Amino acid sequence: MSESTRAIAPEMVIKNIVETWPETVRVFAKHGLGCVTCSIASFDTVERGAKAHKIAVEPLLEDLNLVLVRPELFPEVKTGGLAMNAMGVDNTTTSGIKNIIAIVSGKGGVGKSFVTSTLAIGLNRLGYRVGILDADITGPSIPRTFGITARPAEGEGGKIIPVISGHGIKIISSLFFVEDEDKPIIWRGPLISKMIKDFYNSTLWGELDYLLVDLPPGTSDAPLTVMQSLPVNGIVLVSSPQKLATSIVKKAIGLAERLHTPIVGVVENMSWLTLPDSGKKLFLFGPSRAEELAQAAGAPVLACLPVDPRAAELVDSGRVEEYNSIETDALAGNFLVLGRERMRRQSLTIAVN
Q: Do the beta carbons of residue 236 and residue 262 sit within 8 Å?
């Protein structure tokens, strides 16, 4: 096969290859290249991965390009009796998920869970099938926000049936699996990472247009697990107007770049408070820095959300699905228009490269 007819080149990233052409996982397995399931090495190029595993790159490239036209020549990979895709994910529970969106921030206290909830609600109202994976294992808040007290049921094969909110949003969270909600979950990073992967792989999600993953703050174990173990389509970056928050959140931009995951948009939370007597906006945390952050991320501003006492009241009482505002409606609408376009362009870029 000549260089001009090859779709896959040595400088292409393994993660991007197996996401674009899932059948290539069979070739990597045949050649003994474990990068497709390794949470770090999957972000190497083919050339670097082959070199690290002492594998000849040319035969690997020949087979990678051959599988695109003759997939029947390469048997399906099986792991633990279950068919696994390129990210090591159990297709029997995740094949119905069309898009996975991670809600990310480098800093705590900026309202990622509120943004996750309102985006999920907005998409749900527009007729999309939505799920939420609460990946903040030690600080879960999504079930309380939705007022859910039920526990997940056990389905066939020991799989988890997610709890469904009053308006039809599927939710899984560590809060469902503790006897006392007020007792802390004191776990080290590896256990947290395992639970996130188990929640994704072992939950019967069914058909979803969007699975939103509510991440804890920072750029360590939990965010890395989600970005490296789940086929994330894009990131929504959440911040607040404080200069310190913006500075720290920019670290999450670096994480997205390192992991080759597109930032589909920026949301600034707590942008202002509308004074009840005059209707004037009070910028509690200083002037908006949404455009500055969006420019740094190379992504559009999806919404600037105000501090709203009614939102706080509904969240505290577990009735967040009753909340709506012009700004949260704009969040869902802009996400669908601007966010999907960025994900589409990213997919085209991967395919071309």
A: no
Q: Residue 175 is encoded by which pair of tokens?
A: 């809060």
Pinpoint the residues of the chain covered by CATH 3.40.50.300: 92-352
pLDDT digits (tens, 9 = 90+) for 250-280: 777 877 777 778 899 999 999 999 998 898 9
Q: Per the structure block, which two tokens stand in for 310? A: 């009614």
Report the alpha-carbon distance of residue 52 to residue 46 in Å, rounded.
10
Domain 3-88, CATH class in plain words? mainly alpha
According to CATH, the topology of domain 92-352 is Rossmann fold (3.40.50)
* Rounded-to-integer distance, Cα 251 and Cα 276, Å: 36
CA distance 306 to 120: 18
Name all contacts of 49-56 with Cβ < 8 Å and 24+ positions apart: 49/14, 50/10, 55/31
CA atoms within 13 A on the CB side of 96: 11
pTM of the complete model: 0.71
Please state the rounded mean pLDDT for residues 165-169: 93
What DSSP string runs through 117-176?
Answer: HHHHHHHHHTT--EEEEE--TTS--HHHHTT----PEE-GGGPEEPEE-TTS-EEEEGGG
How many Cβ atoms sit within 10 Å of the Cβ of residue 348? 10
Q: Are 99 and 205 in contact (CB under 8 A)?
A: no
Distance between CA 16 and CA 351 in Å, rounded? 9
Cα–Cα distance measured from residue 149 to residue 170, given in angstroms and rounded to the nearest whole number: 14
Model confidence over 61-71: pLDDT tens digits?
Answer: 998 999 898 88
What is the tens place of the pLDDT at every residue in 93-149?
Answer: 677 999 999 998 867 778 899 999 999 999 999 999 999 999 988 788 999 999 998
d(CA 22, CA 352): 16
Question: DSSP secondary-structure letter at 282?
Answer: E
pLDDT surpassing 60 at residue 36: no
C-alpha radius of gyration, the chain, whole number:
21
What are 230's two structure tokens? 């789940």
Q: Which residues of the chain are in CATH 1.10.3910.10 domains?
A: 3-88
